[in-house]
Amino acid sequence: MANLFFEPSTRTHFSFESAEFQLGCKVADFSASSSSVTKGESLYDTARTFEAIGYKVLVIRHPDDRYYERLRDITIPILNAGDGAGDHPTQCLLDLYTMWEEFGSFEGLKVVICGDIKHSRVAASNKEALDRLGADVRFAGPAQWRREGYPVMDFDQAVEWADVVMMLRIQKERGAMADMPNREYLTRYGLTMERASRMKPGAIIMHPAPVNRDVEIDSRLVEAPQSRIFRQMTNGVLIRKAVLKRAFGYPPFREETGDRGQS
Ligand code: CP
């Protein structure tokens, strides 16, 4: 298989790679800057080349929303490792798994997602999935980064209401800029020690990372007892192993019987 990352990544790239190694895959690591992309080769021709030379699964991260629509004629599985501000499906699955580990159910789960919602594929994927699973999802943060159809809640109220407080960083690579110093951003929109002290007992802190410490979250909260930020990363490997097995055609787990087929 091949990992085609056209945007920087630490967690997604290397947890996919860890999952691939654990499953015994042979993995090609692709760097756009040392490939024929620098000569003008398109995404389609790049992916088609990997298919033609024998690769069985592609993992792709790309800055364009819905890049995969250009790859409809590729016949091998393509796993979306993030498309622009569109979606981040495996991040969403690992987030859901982390919530499920904690609460065992999504029905009525109160989730607030705070920060740069407009440019966040994590916010988009989590909204879609959590809505479908019956959670109550609200959004907070600066007004210029809201999205239509995303219900807003005042963050100071939300920290007392939520079971899950998910913080997002400012997506500077997509043109977002906070027109204030970091300290002011933290005070106005971030998860400060004071706000965290008002969270409900049992409520958890999440963040897809990378974290900009002391911007969207006080550095002391990143590894606090109620934080699941590094747990999310650990869970990312499990989720990506499951997604890879599905891509390679393993039968899905059937909950009613506990039958895992031949896997
Ligand atoms: N959460 C996430 O997608 O991190 P990376 O950009 O480091 O992969």
Please characterize this protein's 3D structure:
- The chain is an alpha/beta fold.
- It folds into 2 domains: 2-84 and 235-247, Rossmann fold; 89-227, Rossmann fold, CATH 3.40.50.1370.
- 33% of the residues lie in helices and 14% in strands.
- It has helices at 11-22, 43-52, 89-103, 121-132, 155-161, 182-189, 193-197, 229-247; strands at residues 2-5, 28-31, 58-62, 78-83, 110-114, 136-140, 164-167, 204-206.
- The strands form 2 sheets. Strands 2-1-3-4 form a 4-stranded parallel β-sheet.
- The protein is globular.
- The protein starts with a strand and ends in a 16-residue tail after the last helix.
- The model is unreliable at 259-263 (pLDDT under 50).
- Residues 9-13, 82, 91, 208-210 line the site of phosphoric acid mono(formamide)ester (CP).
- This is Aspartate carbamoyltransferase.
- Residues 1-101 form the Aspartate/ornithine carbamoyltransferase carbamoyl-P binding domain.
- Keywords: Pyrimidine biosynthesis, Transferase.
